[in-house]
């Protein structure tokens, strides 16, 4: 759906001294975002998220590299590519002097929708986004959450298969955020591919199917969220060794010393014991893990649960960007 | 061709009209206009219309209404257009427009006609007042009024297109101070236009008045209709080319379009100034003067910023570091100014033998072809020097390098002009040549006698200009080299690239 090939963007910071080099907002980024995903771009301020999204939309020209949206080169055929894209900017703004329906009507015409279909489409979006009661109100009088919803409705007016949302939850109150997340999930269920950035990693963890972590313009990590969380939760291993994961065995009652059984095992390390559980790193395959479990139970330990520990996206992000894990 | 039906359903036009012409605003505007037309203007006129030989009140009233209409369109509409795009950039709404399916022409036309819609509405509100004035102005017919309105609206349209183009180039909306400066400048450019409207309105231009254009006497209204319409088309072209682009990749015109625009301005200039009446020397001098301004503007249009230079370096590789690139945009400027410098000579005739012009304005004889050529090349090189300096500044990093470059240039010309005038007009030929290196104005005063006496010195002055030009090209090339090799900032801490996720 979206393919980013070797994308770079350099620019000069206003006011920078001559000796300072250019800012690299995107540094040879390569990503592929399949259809139907909710794909999150994560990174600190200045990581290049907004710049990347703007290049995907054709609003910024890359210094090098290319972006394909539905196999259309954005730089060469921006208008064709933009048919497939709905975009909501980070510091979004609306025309405060227009009424809600006028705003959608304007963009309906601007996207060349058939004139007779625009009132119906507008009404449908107003209902879908809970703005029907505000149809004849001026945008100036809407709350921030409503404006946000109107912004997404605007991005959806031409029914694009791809939605690009830059910090859409910034500044929303908790209720509006919950509503917003529900909306995004609904849109995704309806088949939309969504590329989203946010500083609220909890929201992204809840929404995204895949994420890419950017830092200083470079891709640190990308892939399905579950895989990233699992890999990011693993302790740092030695290069070349099999991938390690953190495992917790829960005991029904205290008093059984599992450490004695685990220490000699060659694939187990970093053991941390609590009265009713034990945590350790395991560097083996799933089959080897099953063998270990069987062996632990055969010792007579009152095992009531075994789980692979995964960190939250926030913890994984912190570890990845500190270079603790890769 | 622009389809009028499409213009009327242009979404951008409709959006602007919806915002600007809400019933409440229209009502207030109409009341203000009515008060002005019924109370303010008549009270004002009553002060001036007494005494023998005074202009009839109704005609004076009509002129006043027309002038107010012109001012409303010029300033009101101009400011609305000036703020139109820059304000949207500031509000972050412009990006949404850029990614819609609106064509660049639709977007430009929608803004051009929509942004000043309130000014047009006020203009329309004054029409009944103008018709009342017309009914009592015996010497002024309805056709005259239509004539004035045609000029007024077309003139406004071209001025609005120009201000919209400026708005596109601004990154944020203007402060009050900047708007005042704009009003001041717009006053200068708008004055001749206002004068035309006033003259037409007060019927002081006889029906037979025409504009001498080359060897034709073109009627007033068609001439200005053509002029304003063609200028609007040029400004619209720049808007269409850029309105949906990334601002860092703005390029008002392609080099060939920019040259064509310069050619068009020369066509108008040569036709209007009347080379045939001036004689070859005066015609060439005036042409060089005007072309220095035209090609300076053209040079500014052709300058490449860092972003464009960086992309070009990536596209061209080593070829992007060639001397030809370092001399950009000199070939276009020099070629254009040489061609345009000769243009007036084609239409010039030798002046009468009994001319009483001062020596420095004497027409060169046919044998002075070398002088004519020298003068054009000298001015062309000095202009190229300035533009190459700005090109060098424009690719430098730092705080507003281009603006600094312009300021340095203004300061330089301020000082050199002071030196020029303090030295007086009658310098010895060698001294004049020396001073011309720093103050190219001196070359305009080069007489055949001075040229003959100190050809060597003048050639040295030209060589010095070439060396300075080369020096700026060298600096520009150094900047290109540094852009091609400069280490990047903000590289992340060492992360083994093999571990970063590749495209799936």
Cα end-to-end separation of chain A: 27 Å
CATH superfamily of the largest domain in chain A: P-loop containing nucleotide triphosphate hydrolases
* Biggest sheet overview of chain B: 2 strands, antiparallel
* SS field, number of helical segments of chain B: 21
Task: Report Rg of chain A.
Answer: 24 Å
Low-confidence stretches of chain B: 352-364, 490-504
Overall geometry of chain B: globular
Number of strands of chain A: 14
**Through-space gap between termini of chain B:** 48 Å
Percentage of residues in DSSP E strands of chain A: 25-35%
Report Rg of chain B: 27 Å
Q: Please state the structural category of chain B.
A: mainly alpha
Count of separate structural domains of chain A: 2
* Biggest pleated-sheet summary of chain A: 6 strands, mixed
Structural commentary:
The complex is a heterodimer of chains A (326) and B (504). With 326 residues, chain A is of the alpha/beta class. Chain A folds into two domains: 2-228, Rossmann fold (3-Layer(aba) Sandwich); 234-322, Alpha-Beta Plaits. Helices cover 33% and strands 27% of the residues of chain A. Chain A has helices spanning 49-57, 78-82, 100-110, 118-128, 144-156, 174-189, 201-207, 225-233, 259-262, 286-298, 313-322, and strands at 2-11, 23-33, 38-42, 64-69, 72-73, 85-88, 162-166, 193-197, 210-215, 218-224, 245-251, 268-274, 277-282, 303-308. A six-stranded mixed beta sheet of chain A has the order 6-7-8-3-9-10, sandwiched between helices. Chain A has a four-stranded antiparallel beta sheet with strand order 2-1-4-5. In chain A, helix 8 packs across helix 11 (313-322). The model of chain A has no long low-confidence stretch (mean pLDDT 86). With 504 residues, chain B is mainly α. Chain B has helices at residues 4-8, 11-20, 23-48, 57-91, 94-98, 104-114, 117-136, 142-169, 176-201, 220-242, 255-273, 275-278, 280-302, 306-316, 323-326, 330-347, 369-395, 401-423, 429-438, 448-453, 455-485, and strands spanning 210-213, 216-219. The radius of gyration of chain B is 27 Å and the shape is globular. Chain B contains 21 helices and two strands. Chain B starts with a helix and ends in a 19-residue tail after the last helix. Chain B folds into two domains: 1-252, no CATH class; 253-352 and 363-485, no CATH class. Chain B has a two-stranded antiparallel ribbon. Mean pLDDT of chain B is 81; it is low at 352-364 and 490-504. The longest helix of chain B has 35 residues, at 57-91. In chain B, a hairpin with a 2-residue loop joins strand 1 and strand 2 (216-219). Chains A and B meet through strand 1, strand 2, helix 2, helix 3 and strand 10 of A and helix 2, helix 5 and helix 14 of B.
């Amino acid at each position: 759906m979206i393919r980013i090939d070797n994308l770079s963007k350099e620019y000069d910071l206003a006011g920078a001294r001559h000796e300072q080099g250019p800012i690299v907002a995107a540094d040879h980024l390569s990503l592929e975002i399949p259809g139907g995903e909710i794909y999150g771009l994560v990174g600190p301020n200045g990581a290049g998220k907004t710049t990347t999204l703007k290049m995907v939309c054709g609003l910024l020209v890359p210094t090098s590299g290319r972006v394909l949206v539905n196999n259309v080169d954005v730089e060469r055929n921006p208008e064709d590519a933009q048919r497939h894209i709905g975009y909501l900017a980070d510091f979004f703004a609306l025309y405060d002097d227009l009424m809600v329906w006028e705003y959608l009507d304007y963009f309906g015409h601007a996207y060349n929708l058939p004139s007779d279909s625009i009132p119906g489409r507008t009404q449908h979006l107003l209902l879908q986004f809970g703005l029907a009661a505000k149809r004849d109100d001026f945008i100036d009088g809407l709350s921030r959450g409503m404006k946000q919803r109107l912004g997404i409705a605007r991005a959806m007016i031409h029914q694009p298969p791809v939605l690009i949302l830059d910090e859409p939850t910034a500044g929303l109150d908790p209720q509006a955020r919950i509503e917003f997340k529900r909306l995004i999930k609904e849109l995704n269920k309806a088949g939309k591919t969504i590329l989203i950035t946010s500083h609220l990693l909890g929201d992204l963890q809840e929404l995204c199917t895949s994420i890419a972590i950017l830092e200083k313009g470079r891709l640190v990590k990308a892939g399905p969220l579950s895989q990233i969380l699992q890999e990011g939760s693993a302790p740092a291993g030695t290069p070349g060794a099999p991938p390690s994961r953190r495992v917790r065995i829960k005991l029904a009652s205290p008093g059984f010393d599992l450490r004695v059984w685990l220490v000699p095992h060659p694939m187990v390390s970093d053991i941390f014991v609590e009265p009713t559980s034990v945590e350790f790193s395991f560097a083996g395959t799933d089959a080897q893990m099953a063998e270990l479990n069987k062996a632990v139970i055969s010792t007579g330990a009152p095992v009531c649960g075994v789980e692979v520990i995964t960190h939250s996206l926030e913890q994984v992000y912190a570890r990845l960007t500190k270079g603790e894990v890769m | 061709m622009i389809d009028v039906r499409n213009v009327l359903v242009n979404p951008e036009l409709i959006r602007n009209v919806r915002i600007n012409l809400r019933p409440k605003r229209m009502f207030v505007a109409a009341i203000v206009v009515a008060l002005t037309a019924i109370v303010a203007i008549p009270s004002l006129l009553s002060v001036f219309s007494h005494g023998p030989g005074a202009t009839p009140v109704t005609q004076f009233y009509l002129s006043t209404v027309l002038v107010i209409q012109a001012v409303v369109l010029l300033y009101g509409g101009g400011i609305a257009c000036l703020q139109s795009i820059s304000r949207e950039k500031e509000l972050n709404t412009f990006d949404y427009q850029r990614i819609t399916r609106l064509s660049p022409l639709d977007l430009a036309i929608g803004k051009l006609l929509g942004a000043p819609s309130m000014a047009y509405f006020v203009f329309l509100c004054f029409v009944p007042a103008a018709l009342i004035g017309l009914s009592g102005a015996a010497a002024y017919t309805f056709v005259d009024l239509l004539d004035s309105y045609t000029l007024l609206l077309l003139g406004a349209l071209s001025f609005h297109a120009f201000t919209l183009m400026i708005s596109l180039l601004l990154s944020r909306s203007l402060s009050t101070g900047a708007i005042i400066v704009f009003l001041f400048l717009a006053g200068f450019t708008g004055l001749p236009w206002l004068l035309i409207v006033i003259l037409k309105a007060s019927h002081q231009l006889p029906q037979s008045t025409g504009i001498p254009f080359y060897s034709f006497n073109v009627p007033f209204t068609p001439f200005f209709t053509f002029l304003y319409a063609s200028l609007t088309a040029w400004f619209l072209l720049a808007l269409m080319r850029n309105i949906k682009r990334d601002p860092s990749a703005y390029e008002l015109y392609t080099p060939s379009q920019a040259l064509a625009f310069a050619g068009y301005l020369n066509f108008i200039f040569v036709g209007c100034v009347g080379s045939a009446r001036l004689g070859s020397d005066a015609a060439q001098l005036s042409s060089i003067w005007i072309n220095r301004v035209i090609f300076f503007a053209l040079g500014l249009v052709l300058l490449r910023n860092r972003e464009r230079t960086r992309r070009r370096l990536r596209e061209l590789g080593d070829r992007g570091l060639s001397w030809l690139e370092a001399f950009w945009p000199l070939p276009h400027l020099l070629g254009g100014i040489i061609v345009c410098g000769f243009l007036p000579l084609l239409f010039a005739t030798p002046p009468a033998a009994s001319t009483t012009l001062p020596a420095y304005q004497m027409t060169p004889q046919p044998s002075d072809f070398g002088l004519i050529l020298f003068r054009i090349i000298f001015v062309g090189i000095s202009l190229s020097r300035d533009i190459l300096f700005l090109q060098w500044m424009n690719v430098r990093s730092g705080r507003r390098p281009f603006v600094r470059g312009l300021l340095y240039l203004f300061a330089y010309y301020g000082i050199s002009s002071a030196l020029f005038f303090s030295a007086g007009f009658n310098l010895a030929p060698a001294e004049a040549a020396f001073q011309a290196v720093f103050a190219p104005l001196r070359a305009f005063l080069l007489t055949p006698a001075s040229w003959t006496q100190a050809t060597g010195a003048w050639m040295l002055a030209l060589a010095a200009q070439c060396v300075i030009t080369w020096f700026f090209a060298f600096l520009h090339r150094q900047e290109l080299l540094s852009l091609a090799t400069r280490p990047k900032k903000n590289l992340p801490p060492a992360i083994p690239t093999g571990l970063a996720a590749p495209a799936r």
